[in-house]
Specification:
Length: 352
Amino acid sequence: MSGAKFGFDISKLVAYSGYYIDDSLLKESSSGGAATALSEAVLARGGAVLGVTYTADFKGAEYCLVEQAEDLYKLKGSKYIRPSKEVFYDGERRSVYTVVASLLETGREVLFFGLGCVVAALYSFLTTKQTDTTKLFTVELICMGPTTPKVAEEYIDALEKRYRSKVCDFSVRYKKRGWTPSYLHAEFENGKKFETLFLQSEYGYAFKHYSFAPCYDCHFKGENHKADITVGDYWGISKNHAAYNENGVSLFLLQTQRGKELLSYIDTDSFHLELADVSFALSNNLHYFRPVQRPSDWEEFGKDLEQRGLFYAARRSQGNVKYFLRKAGIIAWAHRILPQTLRDAISHRTGK
């Protein structure tokens, strides 16, 4: 497999698909539960896990250190906003990079989750500090580029004003009817709930439309992934595939020998794993090897977001007619019934 159509040599990549066999565990995960399965494996060996969680008010995201399996719920689910790179450790807020170094210096195994740029920054930091990384495992996510935390803050504020209650649970990848389509789901302290198709929401529109500027020229694609494993949704798989599960399937792309070792630690009595076709997997996950295209009105959207807020920016960017159709769910419905390859092609061409 030369991978000419992908722009890099894919012959060294190994792909697996997988999902939790227990449906209740599977439905709690964004896709097949890859991150949780890998985390459980490292924790069972006495290691530590660092990944991203929501802040207590769900208006932001930050890194979190997990050392007990019962705390892994904090890391579940996609966040889609850029997290703070600080973590609470030894009674104080510290850089997540220094915490990883400190844990490695004690001789513990460490599993670190991050976007491609964050994993690269971690390795750069550890190299500068001359930290031994032989016990470090790194996993990155197939990335379209996170949006600004301002989106989450404004969206949560609007929901709390509307329902006159604080949000106590929130998800942008809620499995209301199986793996797809994704729902945005919020629960409030007064017992009320709110749900809408994620792509129908202003939050979803901002995620698809407004990433940080460097994300549109990401250097950590294709052969430049730095992590041991890259994980994401196994888009493109269908009911005709033996590896399919209607409640979600994860894709594992193994890039190093260390990644193969980490995957071997997964408990296959509870997590179904099987080899996948690398070429097929990449054909349906374009953002593994190319960044998203910057929308033509990216700068205008950013100015509107900062000066007039999320809801004004989303409405003005789409135009009144398209905004109405999206709010009515018509665009999300059309997006849902198109093949994944066509959806990705449209997103890449239009940036929306």
